[in-house]
Amino acid sequence: MKKLLRLSSLLVTAVLLAFSSQKSYATHMQGGDMTYACIAPNTFVVTMKLYSDCSGVTPPSSASLNAKSTGCNPGRNIPMTKIGATRIGDPYCPSIPKTCASNQLVNYQEVVFKATVTFSAVEAQCADWIFSWSECCRPSTANLNGQGTLYLEAYVKLFSPNLPNATPATIVHNNSSPEFNTLNIPIPFVCYNQEVRYSMNALEFDGDSLSYELDSSMESATLPATYNPIGGGGGGGFIINPNPQAPFDTVNNPQVAIFMNGTTNYSPTYPLSSFNVTWTPGQQVVFAQPYFFLDPQTGEIAFRPSEYYKNTASNLGKNKYAVVVKIKEWRKVNDSMVNVGYIRRDIMFIIEDCGGNTPPGTNPRPVPPIFGANLNDTVYQVQTCTSTKITVDFQDQNLSDSVTVFFNQGAGSTIPNGGFQVFDNGTSKARAVITITPLPSDIGRVFQIPVRLEDNSCPLKGVSNEVIKIQVISNNRVDILDTVKTVCLGESLEIEANLMRPDSILGGLADYRYQWESAPGLNPAEQTNKKITVTPTQDTWYRVTVRNASLNGCFDYDSILVRVNPIPVINDIKVAYRPNKENKQHIVYGRSAQINVNLAKVDTGFTYSWSPGRDLSDSTILNPIASPLKTTKYTLTVKSANGECVASKSVDVIVGPFFLPNVITPNGDKLNDVFEYVGIQPNTSLKIFSRWGVLIKEYSSYDNSFGGEGVSDGTYYYIMQEPNGGKSYKGWFEIVRD
What we know:
mainly beta; 2 helices
């Protein structure tokens, strides 16, 4: 635990100006990179940039480039020429003199060399070539063992001999490497315990695809550097909390985070102390997840430096970390993706205590809905064939700090039909405005605009290197609101092709052209209209193509299916009345009758509804049975399958009267002369009894003819029975002759 305690004492806040007392040491080669440009067949200009530690010796004034094809040609050395003067780094605010000396603030200096390499006919028979350079020594670093040789290399493939159907015309590449962005200095000063975004984004001018990966620091072509244990050899695999809460402290009772995945040594993919951890109050041991990420598509590195050694001499390298990124270049040759080259950059990250100052960053604004663009994390998704305006704010968390944006002057030249402008640069309101109008050929492409941001903090400027990313997606420019619509046979329908972005050209409306395909029910005179009226007689697809005449190659199409439903036609509705004694068209009281409907055409999709629905056997069928107790008007509504085509018709169901007399006056005045049962069913039997229960008259099928024949006045009783087990009626009536 003693080693842990010593480490924790070094993780407190640093004082930047303490470096003013540092001494000069012989080590110097902090990092560098090598690129190449093809200027003629098999002729390349190789550029090498070296970065030297100001606390070390003077950088070299000459260099020798080695070109070698392993297994094919032993290669040769080519002298390199120094280009221009040595450039001194500028990491500090303007009030700090820009110097490079062993007794000054930590700084670096850049020297550039070039050489022209022309491969002979014999050399050109070898496909794969490595350009390299090496020199001792690196400065001491926290993550590499010793002060080994700095080795730089770049790879180029002259041709691909093993591809199927290869011919000299298709396999010779004459390829130029990507170029490192000049905004991204490979000796970045980064802030302890703050989120860092460092862009390795390279510029590619051959149209090839790039991929990014972390690689090992090398001492020669075959000898990778050896990586130290995490914590400078004194505490690998864990981190001490520099700001613990009670009961913990940084001296006698530290709070420790152990790496979850068992990481104990630095490595190419975890080259410096950076982690994600939650320091839980009251818990002495917690777990940390190593956090060092390189985006393989954009080259952006993300990490949070978690160690800083206060008042440590520069030559000890406690706050320096060597990181290597390899950029591979891919080209499609004869339908195969071929790695046609790569370049490497040796970076030296220098950790500093920024005294609470945070580096500026990009703050993407949401795009107004009119542009139809999405902001997904930090990637704008813009649609083809429409102009989009994007605004990105550059802000510092210290609101009083100004932000200066550095970018390549040609940053907007790669944006299709657009541009890139920075406004209010050097103020607290710096912003960029990007306009882009991609074409269908740009679908899937990601346009990247690297920017370097600096604030005006002093003595050490807050710096971040970021990339604004714009991804092109397909645009649906036209939309017919419905995919399926229904009309009734003989009716017309209006269809309109709605534009998603009528203002697709910045500053005005685009010129759109419409073309509807010929189809039944479409008037040919309307085929070039935005809006059409159709009268189909059967189910029909209507398709439209919309072209943006302002942007060549931009068109879209949509379609709608119009279904034709038959219109219900009700020819007639009749009630099937049963015969009755009165020979009248009505239902005998208490009885039923079926309603019969005659349709011009019966469709399986029709629905039926009777109103009112009472006293019907089923109000949703075509021919229900009605049993009302009084005359009722029933209305039938017939609808098509989608309910849009409707027909209605009504019918009266008439109910006859029901009457049983309780007195008859057989005096010949034709008023109540007989026992008459109104509403009687045919073949109804009748029995008449005296008040003493004696049967005096019987009918098997009563015909309303009994007039008191053979009996005196008085009260009599009856039993009436309908045929076939029908209803029976019992009661009394009185005979009165006076």
